[in-house]
Amino acid sequence: MSFKVSGLNEFERDLAKVMNDMPSEVMRFMNSLTNELMHYVKKNTPKDTGHLRRNWFFRKALVTGDNYFTIIGNNIEYAPYIEYGHRIVNRKGQTIGFVEGHYMLQKNIDIINKQMSRRLADFLDDLLKKGKLA
To answer: What are the tens digits of pLDDT across the range 27-64?
Structure first.
């Protein structure tokens, strides 16, 4: 009994192309997620003067070794108080209340994290289809 296997050279070539394209595709995927996150964070940031909303920033995806990451932040000095909440103090220095945080960044990070399994599966499917492996 014998059998013949064909197409392994083409498969190896296509697989090498997918592996070669992987870092740039992961960076594209990360930047897409970051842009989406920034949209929702800005949308959910309270707008009094608009100063806090206008000062959200992000850095394009970076890679260090095998780790991909991005930086999202806001340099306005009162941003953490709006995000996490703060206490209310009277003139005597006594705490008389607490203002709950809006969690405009954390809530949206949690939403993206809940969707991550599906999004990664879709990303890998697209990558394999692009490389003619799926």
So the answer is: 999 999 999 999 999 999 999 999 999 999 999 999 99
Helix axes 8-44, 104-130, angle to 10 degrees: 160
pLDDT of residue 43: 96
How far, in Å, CA of 108 to CA of 114, rounded? 10
- Helix, strand, coil shares, percent, the chain, to 5: 55, 20, 25
Buried b (16+ CB within 10 A) or exposed e, 66-98: eeeebeeebeeeebeebbeeeeeeeeeeeeeee
Of 56, 60, 35, whose CA–CA distance to 104 is shortest?
56
Q: What is the pTM of this model?
A: 0.80
